[in-house]
Design goal:
Layout lengths: L6 H17 L6 H19 L8 H25 L7 H12 L4 H30 L2 H14 L7 H21 L2 H18 L4
Helix pairs in contact: 1-2, 2-5, 3-7, 3-8, 5-6, 5-7, 5-8, 6-7, 7-8
Pfam families: Rce1-like (PF02517)
Protein name: CPBP family intramembrane metalloprotease
GO biological process, one term: CAAX-box protein maturation
């Protein structure tokens, strides 16, 4: 089967764009609609692909925690450079925190239980896995990262698109290396806990 005939992959990416366009249309409904979007991602991925889990629990916990910390360190270093870069990227980052940071206890719950698993199951566990059937690993990582980043264009914050692209490259490479979705979820969880909850870069 050719890529153009993979209707599940093409349709799912189109739906992801529609959902994120609606999600970013109103800040007041962001947490509700992004929760719904990621529930769709989880359901679609589980129905469409087998979840890869080729690491033992101790292994994916170790690599998940360490990789999450490493990615946060990379973002921390990047944050130090933002004031010296054009396009007011530092003010964009501050605006993202102000508009979309968790405010209520249920926000933290869905962040951990829905957002993070949903993104990894769908973008790495489904989209990248499907693309790897048609392309080599490097091309699949790059294409998936572009698609992952592209849904954040509706935020009108280019720095968010760039951050998603970089994170996509990182987690996509990690997926090719270890083939463990649980490890990616742990990595994403550690990264988000530091980036959003413990030591926000704002």
């Amino acid at each position: 089967m050719s890529l153009l005939k993979d209707w599940r992959l093409i349709l799912s990416v189109i739906i992801a764009h529609v959902l994120l366009y609606i999600t970013f249309s109103d800040r007041d409904i962001f947490w509700y609609l992004y929760t719904a979007a990621n529930l769709f991602f989880i359901s679609f991925a589980i129905i469409s692909e087998k979840i890869d889990d080729k690491q033992r629990t101790r292994s994916y916990l170790k690599y998940g925690v360490l990789s999450g910390l490493l990615l946060y360190a990379l973002f921390f270093a990047g944050h130090l450079l933002l004031p010296h870069l054009p396009f007011s990227w530092d003010s964009q980052a501050a605006a993202i925190y102000k508009r979309y940071s968790p405010q209520f206890s249920w926000h933290y719950i869905v962040l951990i239980l829905v957002f993070i698993p949903g993104e990894e199951l769908f973008w790495r566990g489904f989209v990248q896995k499907r693309l790897s059937v048609y392309f080599n690993d490097l091309t699949a990582i790059l294409a998936t990262s572009i698609l992952y980043a592209s849904i954040f264009i509706y935020s009108d914050k280019f720095v968010w698109v760039l951050a998603a692209f970089i994170a996509g490259l990182f987690w996509g490479s990690l997926y090719v290396w270890k083939r463990s979705i649980p490890m990616l979820i742990i990595s994403h969880l550690v990264f988000d806990l530091f980036l959003i909850v413990l030591f926000p870069l704002s």
